[in-house]
Write a structure and sequence with these properties.
The chain is of the alpha+beta class. The chain has three helices and eight strands, in the order αββββαββαββ.
Length: 149
């Protein structure tokens, strides 16, 4: 992947707060859920209650798809990412601490929510992109570039 495209991907990840992640339910239907995320380069992280449907889905099938889009007013401003990725639960205490640091840096308001939620029932999830489609309508309607990671 060329540096310019990598920089564009990283900039979108750094600038956008939410992604829609799709997992596969036990009945075979996809389930799309919006989650707040942080990133370390192109590695994505989010936390969710261990009891959430998406954690059950990921436990059974770690292949996920997701979209991340910048806000836009007109179609010629559309810029976003679509990814095929794998997700896994983070158990390593050092990696969990890193995720917490990234979350507090990006979302300082998180401090007011933590006391209300028992952190022990949160799943820390890491998402590693495998294929990324970069949508960039500033280069023309429907323009996209696909890269393997």
């Amino acid at each position: 992947m060329d540096k310019k495209l990598q920089d564009q991907i990283t900039a979108i990840l750094n600038d956008v707060d939410d992604m829609t992640i799709a997992t596969q339910r036990a009945d075979g239907f996809p389930q799309a859920t919006t989650v707040t995320f942080v990133n370390d380069g192109m590695t994505l992280y989010f936390m969710t209650p261990e009891s959430a449907q998406k954690t059950t889905n990921i436990d059974k099938n770690n292949k996920v798809s997701l979209t991340i889009n910048r806000a836009y007013k007109t179609w010629d401003e559309i810029e976003g990412l679509s990814m095929g990725a794998t997700a896994r639960f983070v158990d390593d205490p050092e990696e969990k601490e890193k995720i917490g640091g990234l979350l507090f840096k990006k979302f300082p308001q998180l401090a007011s929510f933590i006391p209300a939620h028992d952190e022990t029932d949160l799943a820390y999830i890491r998402v590693d992109p495998k294929v990324i489609s970069v949508l960039d309508y500033t280069k023309g309607f429907g323009h996209n570039e696909v890269v393997e990671v």
